[in-house]
Amino acid sequence: MEFATRQMWLLTFVLAGVNLISGYSFQYCVADPSSNWTGFRCCENRIVKNLSVTLTSDLPKSAISLLVNFRNMSWMLNNSLAHLPNLQNLRLDENKLSRIDPLAFQNLHQLKSLNLSRNNLSKLSPLVFENLHNLTFLSLSYNKLKEFPDGIFSGVPNLSALHLRENSLKGFSDIVKSVAHLKNLTTLDLCSNQLTSLSHSNASLPRSLNVLYLCNNNLRTLGCKSSFFKFIEVLDLSNNNLLPTEAFQGLNLSHVNSLRLNSTRVKIVEFLNASNIYAGHVDFSGTRLNKNSRITQLCEKLQRKLNTIKKFLLSYNGIKTVRHLNLSHCPEMTGVLDLSHNDLKTIKDLSFLGNQTHITTFIAEHNHLSSLPDSKKDAVQFESLEELSYRYNRILSVDRGAFQQMPNLKSLKLNINNLAFLHQQALKGLRQLQTLRLDNNLLTDLFNVTFEDNVSLQVLNLRNNRISVIFNGTFFNLRNLTTLDLGGNKISYFQPSGFDGLTRLSNLYLDLNNLKKIDLSHQVFKHTLTVLDLSSNNIRFLKDETISPFANLSRLRDLKLSGQRNYGLTILPRTLFRGLRSLESLYLTDNQISHLFPDAFDDLTALRFMTLDNCCVGVTQLQPGVFKNLRNLTRLVLENMGIQNISKGVFGNLTQLRVLQLNHNVMQNIPTDALESLPSLQYLDIRDIPLSCTCRNSLLQDYTVNNPDVQVVHLYALKCQQNKMIHFYNFDTKVCYIDLGKYLFLSTAAAIFLFTVTPLFYVKLYWKIKYSYYVFRSWFGERWNRLRENEENCKYDAFISYNFSDEEWVMRQLLPNLEGNGSGLKLCLHHRDFELGRNIVDNIVAAVYSSRKTVCVVSRSFLQSEWCSLEIQLASYRLFDEHRDVLLLVFLEPVSERQLSSYHRMRKVMLKKTYLQWPGSDGTSPPQAQELFWNQLRRAIKAGSKVETEDNRSEDFAPVSKNVNI
C-alpha cells in the first residue's frame, strides 16, 4: 500500500508538471525522499494545539502530499494550508482535532484525498469542504460525529469514496440527503454507527454508489423503498444483531454480488425464499449454520436455485464436525469452500465433500485441527483442487499421504500451527505444488526425501521452526525453487551438498539462526542469487580473512549482515565484499565493528543503499577514502556509530548521494567542506548530535540555513550543546567574521601609502631604519641592556672604524701610538676582535656598544664603504640618543662638501664638536704636530663621555687644526 501511494504521488507530480526545488529545511516538517520530495511529514514530537499557517508556512507551493500529526493538536484554523495550492493528498488522522474552522481548507482546489479519521470531531461547519472540487476520497472515520449540517458535501461534487465508520450517526435520512447529489460516489462506509433504520425522505442514494457498508449498527428494520439497493453491488449488513429476515421483504437485491449477513437474526433459507438476490452472491458466514441439518437444508435450497456455486463461505458458524456434513445436496462447487473460524477438530480427509470434486480452493483456517491423517488409498480424488489452507490451527503431525487426494495442488499453507512431525512421504505426489508454507511450526528435521516429488515448487517457507542442520540433498529436486526462507531456526551449519539442486534460487533467508561462518561462493545458485539475509546469526571473523565467502555471487543485489550475536561483527575483513559488483543494498546495523578498513567497500561499485546504524563500538574514526568507490550510492545511514569527526576525504567520491543520516553521533562540529563535497545531497539528518555553538560551526550554520538544495531534518529544533535554551540555527556568529570590505580597503590604502613613501624613506632614513632594526633585534635577543651598561664596564676603550684601504695607516701609526708606548688603551679592531661565525652587523653593534668611544678614520674610501657608513651612523645615533660623547672623527685627508652631503649626522657632529685631522696628510706640518695629534687623541679617548654644553666645553679639546665647517 505504501509503495502504491508513493507511486501515485510520483505520477501525480509528473502529470502536474510542477517545478520543484530539491530540498529544504523546515520548522516543523520533513520532506520525504521516497516521494521525490513532493511529500511532507509534519509529525515532530512537540506539543502543538493549533494547526495554523505558521506551522507549514515554510513548505513550498510544490507540495503534493502532506501528513500532519502533532500531539494535542485540537484546532485547525482558517487558511491553515491556503499557501499550498498544489496539495493533492492530505492526512490529518490520529490527532486530537475537535474543531475545524469553516475556511480551514481554503484554496486547496487540487486536493484529491483528505483523511480526518481518528480525531475528536463532533461537529463540522457546512462550509468546511467548500470548493474542494477535485476531492475524491474523504475519511471521517473514528470520530464523534452525530449529524451533518445541510450542504456539507456540496463543495465536493467529485467525491467517490466517503468513510464514516465508527461515529455516532443516527439519522440515515440526513446522511442520504447529504450525499444524494454526489454523482460520482461509489463507496459509502457507515459501519459502527447508531443507525436503527434505513428509512429516509424523498432523496435517494446516488446511482453511482455500488459499495455500501452498514455493518455493526443497531438496525432493526431496513424501512427503505424496494428500489433502494437497486444499484448496490457490495452490501455489508453484518453484526446488526437485531436485523430480522422480514426486513428484506420486497427489496430489490438483484444487482448485489456480495452480501454479508453474519451475526444478524436473518434465517438464511427464508431469506433466499423471499429475496431476488442471486444465491451465489451471498456470504453464509455467521448465519448460524452450526447443524448439519441446516446446511443440508441450505444446500437443497441452493440446488433448486443454482447449477454451480463459485464461493461457498461457511466461516463463523460454529461447525464442530464434518463427519455428517453432507454437501452432496449442494450445487456443484467450482470455486472456494471456506470453513474458517469454526470449531472443527478433525478433518481426516476430504471425503466429507462427497461428489464436490471440482472445488479449486479449500480453506479451514482458525479451527482446532490437531492432525492431518493418512487418507485412504481408494479415496475420491480432487484433481481440481489447487489451493489448500490449514493456517492458524493446532496441527501437531502430518501423516504419510495426507494430500494424495489432491495431486494438482499448487498452494499448500500449513503455517502457524504446532507441527512437529512431517512424515517423509507427507508431500509425496504433489508434483504441481508451487507454494508451500510451513513457517511458524515446531519442525526439527528435514530429510532428503521430504521434498522429493515437489519438482515445481517455487516458494518454500520454513521460517520460525527448530531446524538445526541442513543435510545433504535436502533440496536436491527443487530445481525451480526461487525463494527459500529458513530464517528463525537453529541452523548451525549446512552440509557441503545441503543446497545442491537449487539452480534457480534467487532469494535465500538464513537470518535468526546460529551460523558461525558462511561460505556460499561455490553453491549452485552462485549466479542466480539476488537476495541473501544473514542477519542475527553468530557470524564472526577473528582475523582479516583473505577469501570472501561471497566471492562468486555475481548477481547478489541485497545483503543483510545486521545484528550478529553475541557481540556482533567485530572485524570486517577488507576482502569480505570482494566480487559483489552487483550489490545494491547492504545492511550492517547493530554490530560491534571496531575498525573499517579504507578498502573494505572498494568492490561495491553498484551499491545504492548502505546502513551502518549502530554498527560500531565506542568512537569510530572513518578513514578518508573508505567510500571512495561508491559512486552510485544514493542513501547512506551512519546513525549512532559514535563518530567523533568527519573529514572531506570520507565523502570525496559520493557524487550521487542524496540522503545522509548522521544523527545520534558524538561529533561537536561538522566541516562544511565535507558536506559541500556531496553535489547531489538533498536530505541531511544531524539530530541528536552535540554540536557546539562556536566559531568552529559558523560555516555549518550558514550551510544549513542558507543552502536551498539540502533539507536539514528538524533544523529549527536543534539545540546548542552548551546551552539548551539557544538554537543552533541562530546562535550569534558575528564575532566569527570580520568586515572584509573594510579591512580590504584599509590594507589596500596602507599598501599604496607604503609604496609611495618607501622610496622617500629609503633615501632619507635608510640608515636610521637599518640602525633601529638591528638595535631592536639586539634588544629582543636580551643583549641590549647588557650593551647599554655603564662605560666603566666597557670591554674596549675605543672601537676603530676604518676602511680596508686605510688599514696600513691604522696598523703602522694608530695601533702602536694608542696601544703601545705605555698608553694602556685597549682597541677593538674588526679583523682582530670580531667574533667568528657571527653576523657582521651584530659584530658591529656589539663593538660600538662594548667600547667607550668610537674612532672613525675618515677618508674618501671610508665614505664610499657601506659598512663604514653603518658604523659611523650607529655611533652618531648613540651620541644623540644617549647623550654620550662617544664619537671621535679623525680625517686622514681633506674631504669635499659634496662627498659629505649624504652624511647628515656627521655634518651635525662636526658643527657642534671639534674633530682631528692627521697632520701628515699635506706634508707641510712640523714634526712635533704628529706627537701633539696622538696626545690629543689619547686624551679624547680617555675623557669622560658625558656631553657638555657648548659654552662650558673642556679646553682639553683644543683643536690641532681649524674647524672645517660644512
UniProtKB/TrEMBL annotation:
Cellular localization per UniProt: Membrane
Membrane topology: Single-pass type I membrane protein
Alphabetic keyword roster: Glycoprotein, Immunity, Inflammatory response, Innate immunity, Leucine-rich repeat, Membrane, Receptor, Repeat, Signal, Transmembrane, Transmembrane helix
UniProt key word Transmembrane helix: yes
Predominant place of localization: membrane
Gene Ontology cellular component terms for the protein in this record: endoplasmic reticulum; plasma membrane
Transmembrane segments: 743-763
Region (Disordered) location: 945-966
TIR domain span: 794-941
Domain of life: Eukaryota
Gene Ontology MF: a single term: signaling receptor activity
Basic and acidic residues: compositionally biased ranges: 945-956
Family: Belongs to the Toll-like receptor family.
Protein's name in the database: Toll-like receptor 13
Annotated organism of origin: Nothobranchius furzeri (Turquoise killifish)
